[in-house]
Each structure stands twice: as structure tokens, then as C-alpha cells.
């Protein structure tokens, strides 16, 4: 069997993609804002699910209030992170050119929509947490995993948004 070199197996499409700029366009002191801001909505989505589970087991109205505040803050923080992520997607050619970026964006926008519906349900009818709020919280947790998977793939596999100085 003949050995193949990297030059023989090079993909011209990937080579063209690698030429595009993929550093973060929305950053503070070299730290990408989108990567820094997604942690809050992620934690709050799972916090809302936990509050729903605690309410399910205890029937304590305290957990309804926790879920309301957690869902609302998850939605608002998700919108803020989504605005920054959308700016990155539209401003940076190396991000925009990758299919994984669009998969991440679609999952994230769907997640924000579900988080907004979850918060809205709680505002209108707090007693609807069981079962509808719980179902929305579970769906949001699954969507968080999907969006996070694609976001992590962009960072760790494609080096998207990394701002590495020449001395590093």
C-alpha cells in the first residue's frame, strides 16, 4: 500500500476556509464576548429545570418563584449572548463560511425561543409549570446540549473566535 502525504490528501475547500479570518470581532482585551456570555444562560436553563424538579417533588411555591426568575434571566441573558453571537456570525467571514456555525446558530435561536416561551408561560400562568413548564425546561436543556456541542466544535475543532497572539 502506498503512503500518502498531507499534500496528496489536502482538501481545496478546507484550504480555502482556513485562509479566511476566524478571530473574534466582538472582544474586550482579546477575550471574545460571545464565549464569555453564554455561560450565564446555560447555567440558568439548567437552574430552571432544577427548580421545576424541586417544585415537582416538594410542591413548595418558593420553587415557582425561583423558576420564574431563572427562566426570565436565562431568556434575557440568552438574547444578549445571541446578539453578540449573531454579530460574530455576520462580521467574521471565517465563521460565516462554516456549516457548523449555522447549525450552532439555528440551535441557539431555537433555544432562545423555547426559553422565552418558558418564561412567558410562567408569567401568564405559574401553575402551568407542571407539566408544560417542565416540558419546556427539558426541551431547553436538550437544545442547550445541542447548541453547546456545535459551539464547542467550532472552538475546539475549528479554532473559531480564538485570539492568539504571535508570541503564544
UniProtKB/TrEMBL annotation:
List, for all copies, the residue spans of the domain called DUF2231. 30-161
Chain segments annotated as transmembrane: 38-57, 69-92, 99-117, 129-149
Q: Which UniProt keywords apply?
A: Membrane, Transmembrane, Transmembrane helix
Please give the coiled-coil regions recorded for this protein.
none
The answer to whether keyword Ribosomal protein applies is no
What is the protein named? DUF2231 domain-containing protein
